[in-house]
Amino acid sequence: MHKQQKVTATLLTIGDELLIGQIVDTNSAWMARELVKQGIQVVRRIAIADDRAAITDALDAELAAVDVVLMTGGLGPTADDITKPTLADYFGTTMRTDEKVLQHVKSFFEKRKKPMLERNLRQAEVPEKCTVLFNEKGTAPGMWFEKAGKIVVSMPGVPHEMMHLMETQVLPRLEARFSLKPLLYKNLLVGGEGESFIAEHIKDLEENLPPYIRLAYLPSLGYLRLRLTCNESDREGIEAEIESWSDKIAQRLGKYLVSQNDLPMPEILAGMLTKVGLRLGLAESCTGGYLAHLLTQIPGASNYLQGSLVCYQAEAKIRLLGVSLKTIQDKGIVSEAVALAMARGAAQTLRADIGLGITGWLDKEGDDKAAGGTVCVAITMGDRHESKTFHFANDRLRNKELAAQNAFLLLIRFLKAHFLG
Amino acid sequence: MHKQQKVTATLLTIGDELLIGQIVDTNSAWMARELVKQGIQVVRRIAIADDRAAITDALDAELAAVDVVLMTGGLGPTADDITKPTLADYFGTTMRTDEKVLQHVKSFFEKRKKPMLERNLRQAEVPEKCTVLFNEKGTAPGMWFEKAGKIVVSMPGVPHEMMHLMETQVLPRLEARFSLKPLLYKNLLVGGEGESFIAEHIKDLEENLPPYIRLAYLPSLGYLRLRLTCNESDREGIEAEIESWSDKIAQRLGKYLVSQNDLPMPEILAGMLTKVGLRLGLAESCTGGYLAHLLTQIPGASNYLQGSLVCYQAEAKIRLLGVSLKTIQDKGIVSEAVALAMARGAAQTLRADIGLGITGWLDKEGDDKAAGGTVCVAITMGDRHESKTFHFANDRLRNKELAAQNAFLLLIRFLKAHFLG
């Protein structure tokens, strides 16, 4: 079997819905991440229509440029899905019915007690000259084609089906097929300042990086990731060298460093709360349940999250959280004093060790225009407490995201200062 | 000025972060939607690296094929952003400093009380031969180039900056530049059955559609959109014809039709609740605040949402929502009886007209493996109530999404049945 060193790939997504903007393509980011980890360089991501000529033109162009084309989409049971016959023609082969897939499709519908239709049965038809990638998560199988040393894989566009096929079949096959050098990388999570400031802050370190280690700035709403990468995984001592640069940068970042772990903020928090064995209770006003939603995306959240009291009305803040009317009148409904009272109310009502309260105006065009974008967060535990006011200058949805990430950041710092210092 | 009929576009996204999968590209979907509405056909979406050769190769290829190339990304202040100098070279022009942009960048940092750096000042440098698209939302301006009748626009990749530039400058300029026929379309929101079933249910209607009206199936988690489109907006009576087909399909869909409005489920609910003047209170267990989060994404949610009691622990369900221990012991924590008690508790505690309770196991691998994916939803208002049990077969995150959309669907049907029939 032919083995080679540098392997390049194109991600090709098929579907009118992408070109009319009906759906956001989350598949490509996931696929790119997995391929890069294995040492396959993604050079292009392309989305085209459910159109024969567009598919064959794209395959011609990409197969001339890269080693692997991973296609998703266009394998559904409706009339507008034409990827499968187009691929059969492209590779000069006819269709056959795959018995294993056919039995699977039948039992898929039986189990769900849904009527099976002629068009569903056709999902068991596959091109003669391809390796069928059996899809136990859905009814459309994946297909693996080879032509002149190049590889074309077609997978369904449904994210969990694609992911399952990638993990169980496509990635292992690619690994066996090529001699891959996995990418080495290390991410640092940074909060509290933006891209330009951090870049200046670590400028001399960045300038002294060896040529085979790259530093990238990956900004998100409310935080920033610094990414050190090296694609020469066979270089002697390279892992230790990356670690050492990561440590140097981490030290320089000081208070701006959130974590040297490559995890989303809620997962970092989950890890910390589990480690210190403390239970969290939330009182949310402007974030409207978003903090609790993010924390409960993680399996096992019930081990550290008591719950959240989403009180969208002042009356409920008084009645359920014990915020005093006087505090609201004196300090305003968006104030650190109210946030703190909410945090205390959450800890008490939800019987949590730590309470977090958040109140704010997300919209620029609110009752109080001057205060639009103002968000107050408070954290309390016993007689320790902390609070902070933020001013965000964006629209409602972005301000909500910023509020959530900054609330998590404040909580991470609180835990670090008091328990993990 | 040259005017033409059919205008095609490519969306070209620049940035290593897309090829290593660090971020999900939400820009392209938004841009595609806006362009399609204006009558511009998006034929390709491409993502490439921050790499000179990749950018110029892509421009060569796309300008040979389409009328307009809309680029995003690669305009940041850090060293890896090279789009601007590459474009200047590509269009054979030098750089100049734009005074208006320079003043804007300076005041941008003054207002935020952030130190301004040399690299930020360079954001005011623009190619000589381009129309500067002033960006009041950020520090990187957009750029509009023309060459041999083709148009290339470069915009920052930050979503709200790109959206603002598109809305205020790019779309109006494209409209003025070309004679566009806006796409006519009509969406129907469908719930309760999947793509294959619905396709079969309306098969004969679909077969009788005139050739200039297309029907597409756009499945999401928990619901489905049917989209009727026609790009012959000058055809006589076409709007009425699309409406009439939409009505025919809606009638056939019957109970599966959720709405003939092109809105997300939470916005449909917001409209209904506002119309009937009823206030909603939520009690969330497995969705962990996600229902409240989705509803509070919409401005004005305080007009119909009282709040949500996210009770992640059985103890809190008993103490805060008044669920009886006996019900939990007899029926199980995931049961319609508990969901109904939670709904009643939410209505009472939050002083809402309608209560919605939801409890379930999202993970397949839970304490009770057989029950993984089981979710119970209940709705109550006075002496009227309704409840339903769902069995979802996916992973945690997808099951949460399915739980939320199906809870909304149940509530929409409840409101239709009792108030909007």
Brief descriptors of the model:
homodimer, 421 residues, alpha/beta, Molybdenum Cofactor Biosythetic Enzyme, Chain A, Alpha-Beta Plaits, Maf protein, 3 domains, six-stranded mixed beta sheet, five-stranded mixed beta sheet, 16 helices, 17 strands, 41% helix
Structure description:
- Chain A is α/β, with parallel strands linked by helices and 421 residues long.
- Chain A has three domains: 7-177, 3-Layer(aba) Sandwich (Molybdenum Cofactor Biosythetic Enzyme, Chain A), CATH 3.40.980.10; 184-259, Alpha-Beta Plaits, CATH 3.30.70.2860; 265-420, Maf protein.
- Chain A has 16 helices and 17 strands.
- In chain A, the strands form four sheets. A six-stranded mixed sheet of chain A has the order 2-1-3-8-7-6, sandwiched between helices. Chain A has a five-stranded mixed sheet with strand order 14-13-15-16-17, sandwiched between helices. Chain A has a four-stranded antiparallel sheet with strand order 10-11-9-12, sandwiched between helices.
- In chain A, helix 2 (27-38) packs parallel to helix 7 and helix 11 packs parallel to helix 16 (396-420).
- The N and C termini of chain A lie far apart (54 Å).
- Chains A and B meet through helix 1, helix 2, strand 2, helix 8 and strand 10 of A and helix 1, helix 2, strand 2, helix 8 and strand 10 of B.
